[in-house]
Amino acid sequence: MMQELLLQNLPALLLAVPMLGAFATPLIGKASGGARNLWAVAIMLATLAVAVLLTAQVLSTGTVVYTFGAETPDLTVPADSGGIPIRIIFTVDAMGAFMALAASFVGLGVMLYSFASASRSTGQNGYYALLLLLVVGILGMVCTGDMFNFFVFLEINSLAGAALVASRVDKGVAVEAGLKYAVLSTLGGLLVLFAIALLYGQYGALNIAVIASRMLFTPLDQIALVMLLVALAMKAGAVPMHFWTPDAYSMAPSSITALLVVASQASLYGVFRVVFTLYGLTLEYATIGWIIIILGVLSMFVGVTMAIPQKDVKRLMAYHAVSQTGYMLLGVGVGLAVLGNQQLLDTYGVIAMEGGIFHIINHAMYKGLLFLTAGAIFYRTGTRNLNQLGGLGHSMKWTMVFFIIGALAIAGIPPFNGFASKLMIYESVFLFNPLLAIIAMVVSILTLASFVKVFHSIFMGPRLPEYADVREVPAPMIIGMALLSLLVILFGVFPQEVVDLLITPAAGALIDQGGYIASVLGGA
Amino acid sequence: MNMSKIVRSAANLLFPFILVFGFYIVLHGHLTPGGGFQGGAVIATGFVLMFVAYSYDFITGCIGAESLHTTETIGLLLFIVTALVALGFGVTFFTNWMLDVGPVLNNPVAYGPNPGDLNTAGFIPVMNLAVGIEVLGALSVIVLYMLSGTKEEI
To answer: Residue B154 falls within a domain, yes or no?
Structure first.
């Protein structure tokens, strides 16, 4: 009975558990700080468990729909509604479940790491509550099947993120970064809202499946598409809308930055959901595909060239995050560009998409890991300036090992996970257009060069007198980093298993627009 | 710094009426225009009036940011727990489960023009109340924090 109840309500619990956790955190924190930390980790563990169960359910039985406020979860179209789903519906397909799994896993690592890294700051009640709310925002964005609901979770994501960016005030510098993030996110949110209004005005529905089934691609739809793409690509940090990332990523506490990376990828998921599921074959997929490819190539190249001269280690990593986002856009863009051509899709389109999607989870793992190591260095030395750091390899051995793992993974060196997804992208994109694959490889080489420089200036060299009393970071931070590096290695050693289990269904779910519509409206 | 005696007396006089009006908007949320957020905002204006009339030190001595924080949290918890209880009745999250149990808030709604019956609509009034409590705590605490940043003129 209990088990049945649990399994039936997984999509709701995925949100309800962290939301309940976030709301109760300040009350528990008032009683005791230790109890609050335990509570936050227990909630994150429960969320991860729900995400795992949900993914298993989606993979075994196909897309899961959940109707809020109905007698049964699958009552998407009430009998007296005239064939329109009037309630808010969650539509969790393999792509959404995959994103939810990645987000809750990184969330757990971040939560453990925060135990130690946030222990010296004030206002921890708010910190943990907002952290859980940020997770709620991400999970909601990737699970919802309703455009307006997507906007609501986008706003939760933005507001919680902005408050967390500003949480370490730092003489007002972090507050400025937080304000910048908040203003830009609100601007993006307004564009999304306006686009939703255009769609609603034409089709009289907010449900993604209903809009998709009625999509005509009128000029108004094209305007809506442009607004959705611009706003979501900005939130994802794609060039030329990337300018907020270095500020926000470098000023936020490192644990938050690792989660902000996932939050950006939830917006990237939004881009993919809009072009593949909402518009699908009605849009001129070759044109839009090329636009996404060009965005991707620009992001890759501009990101890495901006990263090389940086002196602040977190700004440098933020530019690399922009650069890596380009790979995902490139891979999925190639898939979109050949969407209508089944033969090309089978030859390389699907593989390119799988590479792009695989890169999402890989990026979340290794970039999260790299930001956490940067946070560990800042925690002990109090500086992020590469010119002042040096010789830390003597005293912070674990952090150094984790940094090496992350740096090699981001540069695409085997046997780490970055190699697996980048190889898929290179091979398939080469068949599509060799020049793009060459650019992608050059960017990888530049990434490696940049990280060799960072590694050298932080860890190599003689022990510096000003860091003589630097010790290794506390155990919770090491556990948080170890959790992520374990997955970085596992995904790199067994890429085929991961691709077969998670990535192929996710790419299939993106392409299969008819299946998405049928899961909500019934029939085909 | 306290404002003049006239302002303080007027604020004292108005405060209970503002509270009553605010809670009226909250509790009639399912019958008339308004609801939890609007009513909560009206109640918060009552608190803001008191903040303005009395000095920051006097106000924080009476209520303090902590108790307002707690109010906010209790409102949020009431909201989410009410939604979660629905799962226990075998229906989905956010289903109006109060319509299935007992006579509380469960009268059938009359058709046509009628004066309105408070005892209807299932858990919607409860949700309104939760939102009202949350908003009154949150808005008041925002104003209180803004006030703490101002400098006192002596």
So the answer is: no
